[in-house]
Design a protein that fits this description.
The chain has 331 residues and is of the alpha+beta class. It folds into two domains: 138 residues, Probable inorganic polyphosphate/atp-NAD kinase, domain 1 (Rossmann fold); 172 residues, Sandwich (Tumour Suppressor Smad4). The chain contains ten helices and 13 strands. Strands 1, 2, 3, 4, 5, 6, 7, 8, 9, 10, 11, 12 and 13 form a 13-stranded mixed β-sheet that branches.
């Protein structure tokens, strides 16, 4: 009998608008063999972390299942990293970058439950900023400004929440355009020293830290990035002077969105296992849609193969599932 702890973030994306969500999850995870499914509705990140940490240490469940988005997953990864307890994902958030990377479609509750029941796993890297982990991508400058704007408007504007429910992940390109047009200043200074001793000093608009190739469905800053290679991809959009600088930035962001920016003179792309970032002013760095640090100095390191996910068989590290059932042969 398999035992699942389902962490349901009632505030994630459109989760509250999906009818019978909890019942659909229960039906999806039952395999006809009496699976035990405990659903916890978590209102805060601390509540989710506390429950996940207890489950990981107590070994009372075979898997934790996160019903939410990248932010919901983010709340749990430090609690279960390096524990022999896999995470399943039912994507209910706005962007769902990690779920999309493994072929899991937004709001496809039944498809995600089939993948979880089958028991195929992929073990992925995490990235740690001053010790705190994230799984997808993020950055400073423009990236941080867009993410915090979306979060602030979601919390304060009923009209924006209505728009968010209808646009989903498309909201991020829209807010990016508004930020490029109307933000007073986006300039930051970076002094980046990689673990191999290379030093880069730049004035830029944005430094992206990518464990995955994409941010959302419409932004592709690191086409070669992989969550299983032990490396972090860093993309810096360098500031160019002159009265046309904002127009050049808009053009560069359009190239980054399409993934055609590699080789541009105002884009610096490098890969490293770790590095230190120093700036003249405090940098707000976000990742997985959450604020990671706000400081003039922080360290970034790759925590290799730290998190085990339950994924469709096509994306698994090996073909042998961890659960033995007819579902694993059919997945």
């Amino acid at each position: 009998m398999k035992r699942y702890l389902v962490m349901l973030n009632a505030n994630a994306g459109n989760a509250a608008a999906v009818s019978d969500l909890e019942d659909r999850i229960r039906r999806g995870l039952h395999d006809g063999r009496g699976a035990k499914v405990l659903v916890l509705r978590c209102r805060t990140g601390e509540e989710a972390r506390r429950s996940a940490r207890a489950a990981a240490r107590g070994r009372t469940f075979d898997a934790i299942v996160v019903a939410g988005g990248d932010g919901s997953l983010h709340q749990l990864i430090d609690a279960v990293a390096h524990f022999d307890l896999p995470l399943g994902i039912i994507p209910m958030g706005t962007a769902n970058d990690l779920a999309s990377r493994f072929g899991l479609a937004k709001h496809d509750v039944e498809g995600a439950c089939r993948a979880i029941r089958a028991g195929h796993t992929a073990t992925i890297d995490l990235v740690r900023i001053d010790g705190k982990g994230f799984a997808t991508g993020g950055g400073t400058g423009l990236a941080s400004r867009v993410a915090t704007t979306v979060q602030r408007w979601r919390e304060t504007s009923r009209v924006f929440r209505w728009l968010l429910r209808r646009l989903g992940g498309k909201i991020y390109p829209l807010v990016t355009v508004l930020t490029l047009l109307f933000a007073r200043s986006l300039r930051e200074t970076y002094r980046i020293e990689t673990s191999d001793g290379r030093l880069r000093e730049l004035e830029g608009y944005c430094a992206l830290l990518m464990n995955l190739p994409s941010l959302g469905a419409h932004f592709h800053p690191a086409p070669r990035a992989s969550e299983r290679d032990g490396l972090l991809d860093v993309v810096v959009l360098e500031r160019t002077g002159g009265w046309l600088s904002r127009l050049r930035l808009i053009a560069t962001v359009a190239h980054v969105a399409r993934g055609t920016h590699i080789g541009r003179q105002d884009v610096h792309h490098f890969r490293a296992r770790g590095f230190e970032v120093v700036s003249e002013e405090p940098l707000a760095c976000i990742a997985d849609g959450e604020l990671m640090v706000e400081s003039e100095r922080f360290s970034v390191d790759v925590d290799e193969r730290a998190l085990t996910l339950l994924v469709p068989a096509l994306y698994a590290d090996v073909r042998e599932p961890i659960f033995s059932s007819q579902d694993s042969r059919a997945a």
